[in-house]
Amino acid sequence: MKIILDKHAGFCFGVKNAVDQTLKAIKENQDKKIYTYGSLIHNRHVTEDLKRKGVEEIENLKDIKDDNSLIIIRSHGVPRSIINEINSKGIKYVDCTCPFVSRIHRIVEDKYCKGYKIVIVGDKKHPEVIGINGWCNNEAIIIDDEKMVDKLPYYDKICLVAQTTFSKNLWHRIKERVKEKFNNAEIFDTICNATENRQKSVIELAKKVDVMLVIGGFNSSNTIKLYELARQYCPNTYHIENAEDLAKETIMKAETIGVSAGASTPDWIIKEVINKMEDLNTLNIMEEYEKSFKTLHPGETVKGTVISYNDEEVFVNIGYKADGIIKKEDLTWDIEQKVSDIVNIGDEIEVKVVSINDGEGNVVLSKKLVDAEKNWYKLEYAYNEKTPVPGVVKEIVKGGAIVEVYGIRAFMPASLFDIKYINDLESYKNDKINVKVIEFDKDKRKVVVSRKDYLLDEKEKKINEFWKNAEVGQKVIGEVKRITDFGAFVDIGGVDGLIHISELSYSRIDHPSEVVKPGDKVEVVILALDKDNNKISLGLKQTMPEPWSTIENKYHIGDIIEAKVVRFANFGAFVEVESGIDGLVHISQISDKRIAKPSDVLQIGETIKAKIIDINIPEKKMSLSIKEVDQ
Ligand code: SF4
User: Fold this and answer.
1) Options 3.30.470.20, 3.90.70.10, 3.40.50.720, 3.40.1010.20; which CATH number does 204-291 get?
2) H-run or E-run covering 195
3) How far separated are the first and last CA of the chain, in Å rounded?
4) Architecture of domain 13-98
5) pTM (predicted TM-score)
6) C-alpha span between 95 and 428 (Å, rounded)
7) Which ligand 1 atom is at minimum distance from the Cα of 17?
8) Could you tell which of 164, 201, 221, 260 is best to mutate to test the pocket of ligand 1, judged by most ligand atoms within 8 Å of the CB?
9) Is 473 helix (H, G, I), strand (E, B) or coil?
10) Is 404 a catalytic residue?
């Protein structure tokens, strides 16, 4: 919308002068009661403002009640008789009669005195015309139509003047008719240039705009004339007094709007009208702008194009005034997937509107919700076929947890979290787990899942698999689960086997904890299988070299070695040469002196030096002598 303001719109010189002088008079005459003789100008907004300032409007000098008064003569001027009466009453006055009007008064008075018949072209009810007539003793003939010229009686001397705001065109036609009829007519073109310029200007403007607004009082003749002139060239011409009269519909479809205003229209009213149009236009532009985009509602599913993304968010053009954002948690239920695994720039994706505005003007979208709707069949299939499905523990709630399975919220009771009851589920939050669907009702949107069922299935599968493939002598990897006095239980892939204490080490040990602890990963050998009783015997030491198998290379008769005293017998002391190889120091080989028992000279745990005096590999026996060390 383009708004063109007529450069001649608004206050003319005479009106501006009257308003300025009145305001000045108000300021300088605070002690006086101020009156205007008639309405100062034909604009109610201005006159109401003056009224608020204490200025009273009178139509008759008799209405002046205060002796200390000041009266304003408006730009239209007044009859000579009024000036005389004011002077005779000694009332102070400010004469704001427009100089162009005063000129007419002088012409009329002069010609009247010289015997001319005064003919005024104008509106006989207009104060200016009434005032002019008052300068020729109210004897003028007043016409406003060229036909009225024909009805005029013949006068020898005739003087023709015009109301300053009369239509220039009509004035010319009347003037020509007068010239034709009265050879000796004295014609004074008293139409004010301000009026002429405004009228010419309004015509030119009206020719090139879609809508023409003429602003001014509904009782302002010059405004009415402007309106009539403009309407001849622009059918969509409207006469308004102020911005309140401006209807949105009047201007909404116009591309160009011309604005003119009568001589008594203050600038601020013109500005108000223009401001309102600009506001309406902005509103209209905004409305059109809004209309050019689709409307959105939360919960609606729309298609969009990926325009960019980072590790945490995807930005989507959905043809709305604002772009949409999909946060990573709304992109997929699968926490292990990266954003770049799911979208590429330019991808068309279907998303659900979560919120129209995230507080920063972005539309919040969810792809996960759209996918979830499509994934109900997967859950139904898993339920019917009893197959496991992946899920993410999203929330720990009373009595269990919410597990998101393919983006669909399912409940898992705490008792179904594991094979054994788990008290604290919090540590599972955001874990990806496998579950089985044990209740499914799409209509009620109810899904119950169980990790325990999944784990039990898996355990059973592993047990079956084990018994199917297990063989004595097979080496398997396992994890020590618990320790007892007689051995260690090892999980070898879903089934537990026992390593008896005697199978833990080649050395003599008092407790299994000397060799293993719970959580240790160990390689074991299957020693025996009893499927009927579900018993599996395992050996740990069998995975290590048997110490006696390499003894030939390490020890020889006559070698002096160090060994640790590990236990006593009546006939001597047993010593540990190395792990898995024990030797005997017979009591007779302990000392040169006669001793009653080994503990007389040795202590358990003591390290002694001894000489190897015999090695019997088949029987895994080694004889040692302490007393021969120094020989
Ligand atoms: S229109 Fe012309 S004559 Fe009338 S008040 Fe304004 S300047 Fe004066």
Assistant:
1) 3.40.1010.20
2) helix 193-207
3) 125
4) 3-Layer(aba) Sandwich (3.40)
5) 0.45
6) 95
7) 5
8) 164
9) coil
10) no
Pocket test for ligand 1, best of 19, 22, 75, 202 (most atoms within 8 A of CB): 75
What single string gives the DSSP state of each residue in 336-400?
A: T--HHHH--TT-EEEEEEEES--SSSPEEEEHHHHHHHHTHHHHHHHHHHT-EEEEEEEEEETTE
**Cα 197 vs. chain centroid, distance in angstroms?**
54
Distance 45 CA to ligand 1 centre (A): 19
Residue 481 near residue 518 (C-beta atoms within 8 A): yes
Q: Which of 109, 128, 313, 576 is catalytic?
A: 128
Q: What are the boundaries of each domain within the chain?
A: 13-98, 100-191, 204-291, 301-373, 375-456, 470-543, 554-625
Q: Are strands 301-309 and 313-317 parallel, antiparallel or unpaired?
A: antiparallel
**Is the CB of 98 within 6 Å of ligand 1?**
yes
- The reply to whether ligand 1 has any atom less than 6 angstroms from the CB of 242 is no
200-227 pLDDT, tens digit each: 899 999 999 999 999 998 888 889 989 9
Q: Look at ligand 1, atom 6, and give the residue with the nearest C-alpha.
A: 14
Tell me how far apart the alpha carbons of residues 411 and 238 are, in angstroms, rounded to a whole number: 70
| SS3 of residue 40 by DSSP | coil
Spatial distance between the Cα atoms of 5 and 280, rounded to a whole number of angstroms? 17
Please give the CATH number for the structural domain made up of 375-456. 2.40.50.140
Where residue 290 falls among pLDDT bands split at 50, 70, 90? low
CA distances from 266 to 161, 212, 300 (A): 28, 18, 53
pLDDT in tens, 252-275: 778 899 999 998 888 888 989 988
Contact status, residue 475 vs residue 523, Cβ threshold 8 Å: yes
192 lines ligand 1 (CB under 6 A): yes
What would the CATH number be for the domain defined by 301-373?
2.40.50.140
**pLDDT score of 314:** 92
- How far is the C-alpha of 561 from the C-alpha of 630, rounded, in Å? 12
Distance in Å, CA 13 to ligand 1 centroid: 6
Report yes or no: 447 and 437 within 8 Å, Cβ to Cβ.
yes
Ligand 1 contact via 101 beta carbon (within 6 Å)? yes
Q: pLDDT (tens digit, 9 = 90+) per residue, 124-151?
A: 999 999 999 999 999 999 999 999 999 9
Measured N-to-C along each axis, helices 44-52 and 13-28 cross at an angle, to the nearest 10 degrees, of: 10
